[in-house]
Specification:
Elements (H helix, E strand, L loop, with lengths): L1 E14 L2 E6 L2 E7 L6 H13 L3 E2 L5 E3 L7 E6 L21 H18 L3 E3 L6 E15 L1
Helix pairs in contact: 1-2
Length: about 140
Amino acid sequence: MKIVIQRVEHADVKVDGRVCGEIGKGYLVLLGIGQEDTEAQCERLYTKMINLRIFSDENGKTNLSLKDVGGELLIISQFTLYADCRKGNRPNFLMAKAPDEAERLYGYFTELCRREIPVVQTGIFGADMKVSLVNDGPFTIVLE
């Protein structure tokens, strides 16, 4: 499993020109699910993600977590995080999990987040999405 976390002031996702997910201060999360991933990887990365202290405290130190600042989540499925570009110029995605099982784990990860984070928005799995964001910092973290 691969997660790209971008600390944002605002983010939204559109499908067919209509907003289907939108957040204020929080994380835009791009979630890639690989062939070998299970619920255990979802749980481990979820716990790491929501406890990351990457928001500034009153002294300007990155000491606060998403929960500490009442942050929101926008979670986007992103199988292209598993692109293999070692041969030629056309990436292959053989290491990404099959769509039906990836969608199940995407849903599982999202439900884990909803247990502790009051605002969790998503894109539409498998759709052609247009994602917009105002990156705060910029601050981007990759978890595997």
